[in-house]
Write a structure and sequence with these properties.
This protein has a domain of 135 residues: ATP-grasp fold, B domain (D-amino Acid Aminotransferase, Chain A, domain 1), CATH 3.30.470.20. The protein is an alpha+beta fold. A hairpin with a 2-residue loop joins strand 10 and strand 11. 31% of the residues lie in helices and 25% in strands. The strands form four sheets. Strands 8, 9, 12, 13, 14 and 15 form a six-stranded antiparallel beta sheet that branches. The chain has a five-stranded antiparallel beta sheet with strand order 1-2-3-7-6. The protein has a two-stranded antiparallel ribbon with strand order 4-5.
């Protein structure tokens, strides 16, 4: 196999006509990969993505060929998938106000050009989910917000409309199922690409702790930061170290590693209803 791309978390190998997508245990904050892995993270992300791909199959086709026909050294954290011509847009849906969306709203009352009602606070539920795309920045750079008009300029009106519809459909299906299991999905990011037959296909990962904000529904309180099932323990610790957010990053202490692994594990079990072996 040939390594064709190494990202912050995933490595992509070419294997004949297919690709092998491998999720590592690496973790990044502020676009810097830290030197300490989170045990089982790659396997948990892969298992949760596969579970969601199956639940979303009637919403949008996906790139999965097999989760078992992969090299033995990658077993449990790799997917054999179709080659796609990837769309140059990060497709983001938001149902709650948080993160960069909150920052935009506080500055302008809008998120990615979408007007929102006045008086919203951190973690407010939006009147309806909104499409808030971003650019796909090179590694080491930050994605930039895009308006819908900019997406139309980048990919054309017909494709832009399909991206928005699919992104919001994926979010709504995921949010409905997660809420039944006591979890709010504040926002999520998906990637889409064109198959050789012209089909628009869901790729990479979907509705994981690396691509989404998951909050326990029973502790949701607007107006303050929320407890989340993701790498927030690492973000909080990194912020408190005084690190300048430039590479190389610092080693993560064991108690932060354990707390972060527990978050990824908890959301997998909560959403799927399956115990992690």
């Amino acid at each position: 196999m040939e390594l064709v791309h190494s990202g912050k978390v995933r490595d992509v190998y070419a294997d004949g006509p297919d690709l092998i997508l491998v999720a590592s245990d690496r973790i990044s904050v502020y676009d810097v990969v830290l030197p300490t892995p989170i045990p089982d993270k790659g396997a948990l992300l892969t298992a949760l993505s596969l579970w969601w791909f199956a639940w979303l199959a009637d919403v949008v086709p996906n790139h999965v060929i097999s989760s078992t026909d992969v090299p033995a050294e990658f077993a449990g954290r790799a997917i054999r998938c179709r080659r796609l011509d990837m769309i140059p847009v990060e497709c983001v849906a938001r149902g709650y106000l948080s993160g960069s969306g909150l920052t935009q709203y506080q500055a302008s009352g809008r998120v990615c050009g979408v007007d929102l009602p006045p008086g919203l606070v951190e973690a407010s539920r939006l009147p309806e989910p909104i499409f808030t795309p971003t650019t796909k920045a090179p590694r080491g750079s930050h994605d930039e917000p895009m308006t819908y008009a900019q997406v139309v300029d980048a990919v054309g009106e017909r494709t832009a409309a399909r991206l928005r519809r699919i992104t919001l459909d994926v979010y709504r299906r995921g949010a409905e199922l997660a809420l039944d299991r006591g979890t709010l999905i504040a926002d999520t990011k998906i990637e889409l690409g064109w198959a050789p037959d012209g089909e628009l296909v869901l790729a990479d990962e979907v509705l994981t702790g690396d691509s989404s904000r998951f909050w326990p529904a029973d502790s949701w309180r607007p107006g303050r930061p929320q407890r989340s099932f993701d790498k927030q323990p690492v973000r909080d610790w990194a912020t408190g170290t005084g690190w300048d957010k430039q590479p190389p990053g610092p080693e993560i202490p064991p108690h932060v590693v354990a707390a972060t692994r527990a978050r990824y594990l908890a959301v997998y079990e909560r959403l799927t209803g399956q115990r992690w072996a």
